[in-house]
Write a structure and sequence with these properties.
Layout lengths: L2 H21 L12 H8 L3 H13 L3 E4 L3 E4 L10 H7 L8 H23 L2 H16 L4 H18 L3 H20 L4 H19 L3 H19 L8
Antiparallel strand pairs: 1-2
Helix pairs in contact: 1-3, 1-4, 2-3, 5-7, 5-8, 5-9, 5-10, 6-7, 6-9, 7-8, 9-10
C-alpha cells in the first residue's frame, strides 16, 4: 500500500471518529471542541489530519470555527441530516418518527407528481429498466441489502423518467435519508410481498400511460413506507 493510500485511510477513519463523537455528544465542554493540538492527542494523529477532519465536519454543518472563539458544535438544526455520513454518525440517536417520517412527507410532495409525469414521458427503455429493478426486488428474497439496492434504483429511474430535472435533484437530495430509512424499517415477509406487488402495479401503470393511476400507486408505496417505520428494526443489512 502506498503512503498516500494509507494517509487517505487514516484521514477517513479520523473524520468518521470525530463526526461520530460530535453526533453522539462525546464532548462535554458546553458545545466547544478542544483545540487542534488536544484533538491530535485525543485521536493520535497529526494536527494536519485533524484540520482536514474539521474541514469535512464543518462542511456538513456540524461545527463552526472562528478566530479567538474556537470550534463550537452547532445546533442539530444546522446539520446536514440528509448527508449519508451524518446519518451514519447519528446512528441510533436519530428520532425515526421525526426525521424519517419527515423524509416520507417530503417524498409525498415529489414522487406522486413525478410518477404522473413519468407515465406520459417515460421512454420504453426507462419502463424496461423500471421492470428490471422491480424484478430484482422480487428476486432478492431474504437478501435485505439486495432488496434495498433494487428499491433505491427503482425510484431513481422513476424520477429520471419524469424528465423533470428539479424532481431528479430533489430526489437525489433525499436519497441518502431514503436509503437509511429503508435500512431502519422493519419488513415482515407480508410487507415485502405488498411492496413488490405495489411496485409491479406502478410499472404496469406506466406501461399503460396511466398518469392518475401512477400517482395513486406511488401514494400507496409511501403509505407502505410509513407503515414500515412503525415496525421493530431488523438486524442491519
Amino acid at each position: 500500500m502506498t503512503k498516500p493510500d494509507k494517509r487517505a485511510r487514516v484521514g477517513k477513519n479520523i473524520i468518521d471518529r470525530l463526526g461520530c463523537d460530535i453526533c453522539q455528544d462525546a464532548f462535554d465542554d458546553g458545545g466547544t471542541l478542544p483545540n487542534e493540538a488536544d484533538l491530535a492527542l485525543r485521536y493520535g494523529v497529526s494536527r494536519t489530519v485533524i484540520r482536514e477532519a474539521l474541514n469535512v465536519v464543518q462542511s456538513k454543518g456540524l461545527i463552526s470555527r472562528k478566530a479567538r472563539v474556537g470550534t463550537t458544535i452547532n445546533a442539530r438544526d444546522s446539520w446536514n441530516i440528509l448527508d449519508e455520513q451524518v446519518l451514519t454518525w447519528l446512528g441510533d440517536t436519530i428520532d425515526d418518527t421525526d426525521l424519517l417520517a419527515s423524509v416520507i412527507e417530503a417524498r409525498r410532495l415529489i414522487e406522486p407528481a413525478a410518477a404522473a409525469k413519468a407515465a406520459t414521458r417515460a421512454e420504453l427503455s426507462e419502463i424496461a429498466a423500471l421492470e428490471d429493478a422491480w424484478r430484482a426486488m422480487a428476486a432478492a428474497g431474504d437478501n435485505r441489502a439486495g432488496f434495498i439496492a433494487a428499491d433505491i434504483t427503482f425510484h431513481q429511474i422513476l424520477l429520471k423518467a419524469s424528465h423533470n430535472r428539479v424532481f431528479q435533484q430533489l430526489g437525489t437530495a433525499l436519497q441518502a435519508a431514503t436509503r437509511f430509512g429503508l435500512r431502519q424499517s422493519g419488513h415482515a415477509a407480508r410487507d415485502l410481498d405488498d411492496a413488490i406487488a405495489t411496485h409491479g402495479a406502478l410499472v404496469e401503470a406506466l406501461r399503460l400511460r396511466d398518469a392518475a393511476g401512477a400517482s395513486r400507486i406511488t401514494e400507496q408505496l409511501l403509505d407502505l413506507a410509513l407503515r414500515d417505520l412503525a415496525r421493530p428494526n431488523p438486524p442491519p443489512a
